[in-house]
Write a structure and sequence with these properties.
about 400 residues; alpha/beta; Rossmann fold; 7-stranded parallel beta sheet; 15 helices; about 35% helix
Length: about 400
C-alpha cells in the first residue's frame, strides 16, 4: 500500500516523497487509516517498525498553523524526543507547522521561547510537567495526544507523571498509544483514558532469517578479552555493546580504547551535549562502536547497526528484545551476541526461552583481564584498528 492511496494532504505527500517514503511499513498500513480518521488507537509493534510516521502524519494532517499547541507526543528519553521531533518536522515541513522539543538536562529558557510559537510539542514527561507548572505550556487546546514507547515509560517510573499530564488534557481529543509490549499498566491507561480504541498488532520480533542469536560461555575474567576478540573476528560496521551499569560501560569503553578499538560510552551520566556529540559521531561511523546502558535500547533510532553485543545479560526478555531490535532493521541482517559467565546461565535461559540461539565456539583463546576503571593504552597484542572500511594493526 502506498501513502498516495490514502486521503493525505498533498503537502504531506510532497514531504514524504522528499524523504524517500513511498510504500508503507506494516504498522503504517494498519494504523494510518484509523489514525487519520481521528480514532483512538493502541498499536503494538517492535522497535524500528516505522511507527513515528504512523502518528506523525496524522499530526501533520490535522494540526493547523497559528492556532497554538494542538498536539503533544511523550517519549521516555531525550534522544527519542529529538528523533521524533525531527521526523515530525519533516512530515509537516510543507505545512509549515512548528515543533518544540522539551526535555531535561538543558536550559529551559530556549524551550520557553519555542513553546510560544509551536503547534506541536515533543518531550519527556518530567520536563513537560515542569513547563506546565511554570505556566509556559498549556494543554487546553490539545487535539492529539501520543504516548510513544509507553511500556518503556512505565519501566522508567513515569506512570504518575503521565496521569498528571493526561488529567490536564481536554476530554475531547484523539489519543494514540504505541508500545512494544502490553503490561497491565498499559491496559489500565487504555481503559481509563481512551475511548473505544482500535487495537493494532504487528510483528513484535525480528524474523529469524534476518537476526542470528549466538552466545559464548567464558569465565568472568575472560569477558573483556572475549569481547575484543569477537570484535576483531566479526569486524562490525556499526555495533552497540550493552552493559548493565554506567560504571561497566565506562570500564568497557576504556578497555577497548586502550587496545586501539574505536569506542564511546553513552549513558545517563553524561550531559545532553556530550550524548548528542557522541551520537552525531556514531551516525557518521566515528566511533563505530557504542558502549551503552539500556537507556539506549529504545531511545535511539540508529540505522545500519550490524552487531549487538550483550556484555552484561539483560534483566528481562523484553530488554533482550529491545536491545537486539537495534539491528536487523528494515530487511537487513544482523547478529546478537551474548557473552555469558557462570552466574548468567539461569537468568539467560529464562530470557531466550522462545528464541533460536546457538552456542558459539571461540577460535581464539581469551585471556584473563581484571575489570578495573582504567587501562593503559599500550598492548602489543591489540586487535586491528578500523580506518574507514578497512582494518589494520
Amino acid at each position: 500500500m502506498k501513502f498516495s492511496d490514502l486521503n493525505i494532504d498533498k503537502r504531506i505527500l510532497k514531504s514524504l516523497s522528499e524523504m524517500g517514503f513511498t510504500e508503507m511499513t506494516d504498522i503504517q498500513e494498519k494504523t494510518l487509516p484509523v489514525a487519520l480518521d481521528g480514532r483512538d488507537l493502541i498499536a503494538q509493534a517492535m522497535t524500528g517498525s516505522g511507527k513515528t510516521a504512523a502518528f506523525g502524519i496524522p499530526i501533520a494532517q490535522h494540526i493547523e498553523r497559528g492556532k497554538g499547541i494542538q498536539a503533544i507526543v511523550l517519549t521516555p528519553t531525550r534522544e527519542l524526543a529529538v528523533q521524533v521531533a525531527t521526523e515530525v518536522k519533516k512530515f509537516s515541513k510543507n505545512s509549515q507547522l512548528r515543533t518544540a522539543i522539551v526535555y531535561g538536562g538543558v536550559s529551559i529558557e530556549p524551550q520557553i521561547s519555542e513553546l510560544r510559537h509551536a503547534e506541536v510539542v515533543v518531550g519527556t514527561p518530567g520536563r513537560v510537567l515542569d513547563h506546565m507548572q511554570r505556566g509556559t505550556l498549556r494543554l487546553g487546546g490539545i487535539k492529539i495526544f501520543v504516548l510513544d514507547e509507553a511500556d518503556r515509560m512505565l519501566d522508567m517510573g513515569f506512570i504518575d507523571d503521565i496521569r498528571r499530564i493526561i488529567s490536564a488534557l481536554p476530554e475531547k481529543r484523539q489519543t494514540m498509544l504505541f508500545s512494544a509490549t502490553m503490561p497491565d499498566e498499559i491496559v489500565y491507561i487504555a481503559k481509563r483514558y481512551m475511548k473505544n480504541p482500535a487495537r493494532i498488532k504487528t510483528q513484535t520480533h525480528i524474523s529469524k532469517h534476518l537476526l542470528k542469536h549466538i552466545y559464548y560461555d567464558v569465565r568472568h575474567d575472560e569477558k573483556l578479552s572475549t569481547l575484543s576478540g569477537l570484535i576483531e573476528k566479526e569486524k562490525p560496521s556499526l555495533a552497540i555493546i550493552f552493559c548493565g551499569t554506567r560504571r561497566m560501560a565506562n570500564v568497557v569503553e576504556r578497555y577497548l580504547r586502550g587496545i586501539n578499538v574505536e569506542a564511546k560510552a553513552i549513558h545517563g551520566g553524561l550531559t545532553q551535549q556530550q550524548r548528542s556529540h557522541i551520537m552525531d559521531g556514531f551516525h557518521r561511523g566515528r566511533p563505530h562502536i557504542l558502549v551503552a546502558t539500556d537507556v539506549a535500547a529504545r531511545g535511539l533510532d540508529i540505522k545500519d547497526v550490524s552487531h549487538i553485543f550483550n556484555f552484561d545479560v539483560p534483566k528481562t526478555a523484553e530488554d533482550y528484545t529491545h536491545r537486539t531490535g537495534r539491528t536487523a532493521r528494515f530487511g537487513k541482517t544482523g547478529k546478537a551476541i551474548t557473552i555469558l559467565s557462570k552466574d548468567d546461565h539461569e537468568s539467560f535461559r529464562k530470557i531466550i526461552r522462545h528464541i533460536e540461539i546457538e552456542r558459539g565456539i571461540l577460535d581464539f583463546k581469551p585471556v584473563p583481564v581484571r575489570m578495573q576503571s582504567s587501562y593503559t593504552h599500550s598492548n602489543r597484542n591489540a586487535p586491528r584498528r578500523r580506518f574507514g572500511n578497512s582494518w589494520e594493526r
